[in-house]
Amino acid sequence: METQTTKFLIIGGGPGGYVAAIRAGQLGIATTLVEGEQLGGTCLNIGCIPSKALIHAADAFHQASSFAGKTPLGIQVDVPRIDVAQTVRWKDSVVRRLTGGVAALLKKNGVNVIKGWARVVDGKTVEVVPSGSGAASEPLRITCEHLLLATGSTEVALPGIPLGGRVISSTQALSPTAIPKRLLVVGAGYIGLELGIVYRKLGAEVTVVEALERILPLYDDELVKPVSASLRKLGVQLHLGCKVQGLNVAGDAVRILDTQGKESELSADQVLVAIGRTPRTQGWGLESLLLDMNGRAVKVDDQCRTSMRNVWAIGDLTGEPMLAHRAMAQGDMVAEIIAGHKHRFAPNAIAAVCFTDPEIVAAGLSPQQAEHAGLDCIHASFPFAANGRAMTLEASDGFVRVVARRDNHLIVGWQAVGVGVSELSTAFSQSLEMGACLEDIAGTIHAHPTLGEAVHEAALRALGRALHI
Ligand code: FAD
Ligand code: NAD
How buried is residue 2: exposed, middle or buried, by Cβ count under 10 Å (0-12/13-18/19+)? Predict the structure, then answer.
């Protein structure tokens, strides 16, 4: 068996692994990256990017469809049609451009990329079985000084409803050949609602079944309210507090049980299972390392070191929050530590964005979380109904909220819900990371007319001197 030696060996070319590799290459570390499928991992191929591409396409189609009626804007079009195969080709072209870009960046930074499935032999040795076309045919042994585990996560299947046939995961939902007449979504979390809304806007009748009594349990009630209202307006049916029991005998309906113990059936042409993701710990020899675990995730410290010396882990493999930007930040950090820099993963906040209609963003603590943390805080909201830019965009639902300590006005959290608020996450994260106080935001000139003025006004309002409300 051919053997190669490298200083830094990375398993997994998702946002965690590929960023670690690029940064290590920039820092002059001899780096090898092993990827079994496609560079870019879940995020670029079957996650963040394709889902946001389809959200955009569905929004555009939905808006065009709304122009077929009488609109306040005076735009009128004939009933639009959508060529779903072309939409998927466009989405794939976006994905290809980005994954091609990652390959080019890795090459430019001197990273040795190996296409194949890695299997851990020990903390310094990995065997790779080549995969895909153009791959070397012989297995390969690679020894290293530092091993980075970045194998990501996989979807959780529902017991009793294996994936296959009409039961699909987000991966299949992101590459539809046709839009089903009736889509049943299991789980009202990120994927269920982002993709449920896409399918509804593309014409499917969508029903969402959620085990809890509410949607998007990660976000507080006030933030979620405008999304619930939008789901109602779109005609998405919600069954809250219902557990899926299995398929019926004919296999064309899902059996659900509500909290009162009442069983019923919901028919569906397709069932999208979106009940969470789990760290990818199986099938590649992880168990041979006997690492300390944190539930199903690999346990790491604040430098992403595992319990074995010079074995590191990042991204979804290390558990929640399973977000691409967290994986990237961890990958960047590990490369820098290996290069001798002093670094630790201690962000003040990792913003979470839900790309529903309207979007939700949360960074840092909500008022309730601040209270639970024992902080004495003030909070204030500014509604988009009083924001000029929001009105010009026909997007006056939602608000921006700030949470700050009462004693010194240090901002500890930002939340927003509304059209396009995902872009406010940058301002929120920067303010939290730089330790801004309400007065810093109040004293900053915010360009007019922008949605960002609501950020300014929320801070002013918390100080008792909002101008536009
Ligand atoms: P991954 O991206 O999962 O990459 C792991 C890589 O390792 C994969 O390419 C895999 O093939 C490879 N691999 C695994 N085992 C081996 C092995 N033994 N040998 C070789 N290679 C191996 N996050 C956001 O922040 N924003 C979003 O909008 C967002 N949207 C999402 C939408 C969907 C539908 C999904 C499913 C996820 C979404 N996420 C989003 C989550 C995001 O995709 C993940 O948090 C992120 O991809 C995790 O990065 P990672 O590097 O840890 O793992
Ligand atoms: P999720 O954890 O966001 O939501 C899963 C939902 O399914 C929860 O509301 C849960 O209560 C419900 N559920 C669980 N078991 C159920 C059952 N048996 N019947 C009915 N409902 C059930 O998970 P997801 O939507 O699958 O997304 C997986 C992960 O992917 C997320 O946690 C996130 O880390 C990542 N993601 C992020 C984004 C983003 O950042 N915008 C988008 C998509 C996915």
Answer: exposed
